[in-house]
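TL;DR need structure tokens for one chain.
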Amino acid sequence: MKIIFNDKEIELKFRFKQDLLFESATEESFSGKNTKQWIIYMFCALIANAGDGFCSFDEFERWLSDNPQKFYDFIEEYTTFMANIAEQRAPKKADESKKKKK
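>> reply
TL;DR here they are.
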């Protein structure tokens, strides 16, 4: 997913770094259980992809308020990404179960 932030195009890729940033900031794992988690997670994705010090949380919050659809796009993109991972892993688990039974 690409966004324009402060006149800079940034591609938000899902990386382990955003998980580490999120866990450091909140002292919990991301679960998507509420809006607060999603907003912080999106901010962590921005920092993970654009670099530390790229923007403050206040700058991000103002940008997000001006671009609310990007928030919903991010949730949809992440949900699709995780569903694809689950789908890719499912056949492997079934194959492993068959191998163990032999």
